[in-house]
Design goal:
It is built from 3 helices and 5 strands, in the order βαββββαα. With 110 residues, the protein is α+β, with helices and mostly antiparallel strands. It has one domain: Integrase, DNA-binding domain (Double Stranded RNA Binding Domain). It has a 5-stranded mixed sheet, with helices on one face. Strand 4 and strand 5 form a beta hairpin. Helix 2 packs across helix 3.
């Protein structure tokens, strides 16, 4: 899992490879924040964190609909919720996130 400094320019330069690749934001103020590029070229923001000793992964949204600064802000808020033992899903609702898992059905947002 490579680390790169995520910038507007570097996001457009990241290309799909034979398998999906997770790029962690190098030097970011949000540990565990990154971008997954699928083999098909889809770019998805994520946050890796630990809750009760278990490593978890939370999808924040897709790029480009959710830009870099909004994704970082959403990840920061999510980490604050985790550290305060609040469900991370409440972050999604308050920040107006665009979770890739959202189906449009009530109650099926995460």
């Amino acid at each position: 899992m490579p680390s790169v400094r995520l910038t507007a320019k570097s996001l457009d330069a990241l290309r799909a490879k034979a398998t999906r690749v997770d790029y962690f934001d190098e030097g970011a103020s949000v540990p565990g924040f990154g971008l997954r590029v699928s083999a098909a070229g889809k770019k998805t923001w994520f946050l890796m964190y630990r809750a009760s000793g278990v490593q978890k992964r939370h999808t924040l949204g897709t790029y480009p609909p959710m830009g870099l600064e909004k994704a970082r802000a959403t990840a920061r808020t999510a980490l604050l919720n985790v550290s305060a033992s609040r469900p991370i899903r409440s972050t999604w609702r308050r920040t107006g996130g665009t979770s890739a898992r959202r189906s449009g059905r009530p109650g099926a947002d995460c």
